[in-house]
Amino acid sequence: MASKEEILRQAGLSDQEIKVYFATLSLGVARAHSIAKKAGMLRTSTYDVLGSLGEKGLVSKVKKAKVGYFEAKSPHRIVDILEERKQKVSSILPELNALKASVGDKPSVELFEGKEGLKAILDEIIETHPKEVLQLNSAQIFQVLQFYFPHWIQRRVKAKIPTRVIQERAKIIEEYKEKDAQELRQIRFTPFQIPTATFIYSNKLAFLTMKEEQIAGILIDNADIAKTQRGFFEIAWGLAKKE
Structure pTM? Predict the structure, then answer.
């Protein structure tokens, strides 16, 4: 659980403001030098901080016999400050949303390195829960992710995410093809070797390269790019062999 100091930092108070506010709260009504001593700060610095707290409505200045004293306002004032900030931000949300809309749908591109990076991309596919995953797959994925990828297939099946796969012919793939129906998959073979793996899902496109010296993945999030690649996949799917 976050400390009270950390929570007040998140509310916008500086470390010095927190010290002075706590000191003033504990003293009730006090002179600046007493507050400085309690806060462990110089008197001159304490005056400046009391001023900033006064602007925020957390401390008030009162005079007794022409002598200045300071008193901390109720801690509920902090909630009021946050509410005021929330209302101010809410008032400009339409303008901010209009600015975002004017930019358009720019592609988002992320690079993931190493085997853990490939796993992160494949995990993201499951978490996205698309209606279907289209794969241009390389047999190398079964070597590079020898233990992870079969487990990923089980997770995909459990999530009820079907897939269509265009795959180079290999013994391990032919064994997997025998379980197509139970693993919500259709595999079609292509006569040429596929050096990388491509996953098309939702509005996203993932490229996985698995050469030992450069294992990495690139994830692109853009509806138009995904739509284009999905069209190319459908052409290739129609030409690929069913057997």
Answer: 0.58
